[in-house]
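Quick one: structure for this chain?
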Amino acid sequence: MSSAIVELDGVTAAYRDRRVLHDITLSIGAGERVALIGPNGAGKSTLLAVATGLLRPEAGRVCLTGRPVEELDRLDVARRLAVVPGAANLPFATRVEEVVALGRLPHEDPFRGARPADRAAVAAAIERVGVGHLLGRDARELSLGERQLVLIALAVAQAAPVLVLDEPTVHLDLRHQVGAMELLVDLNERDGTTIIAVLHDLALAAHFFPRLVLLDGGRIVADGPAAEVLSPARIRDVFGVDPGFVRLPVEAG
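Got it. Here's what it folds into:
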């Protein structure tokens, strides 16, 4: 059995009748912190959908904690993996604390409901993410940035060994972007949570993630530390911009 916690082997996948991923092989070990980067349309979000079992590939194998993802029901997946989407619509009035409490559903007793441990996990997640000032508010009325933080708190409350995020900083101002990244580092280093995040901001990815996976045209074109993946030549070739416009940490230079 593979030691990888998330593994894709020869995966090809299509979305809306368009082939998006081509022969993707990727292995992520327990406790890693990995950013998926690449231009728009590179296949980053589709890769997440395949890895989390939301999209069935046309070919290849996908395993989660050593089990083929198609053998797992949604509850099994939720106990292994928490997902923070890039955007989420709430169809009805839901208070912030009720949204965060959804993260405990995979762990609750189906007959007894939330236990003291579940309520404690929700309270701890709210404090850790720093959304206590939003308690009591209808989550639909929050700004997009505030809602994003609430969804991160939901995922923290879920306490899954793998946390997957699709553009977690897209609606956040600079201070909250850095705060969110620092939280992911803390979850990874202190709790041992495996972090997989799609990011467009190359500077954030290079600064906060030891491993970058660069996609282009539905294929992995580089995989490793920022200094190797984000070379000036590759920034020019993949993103089509002058590397001088991309500010990276000195060590990634």
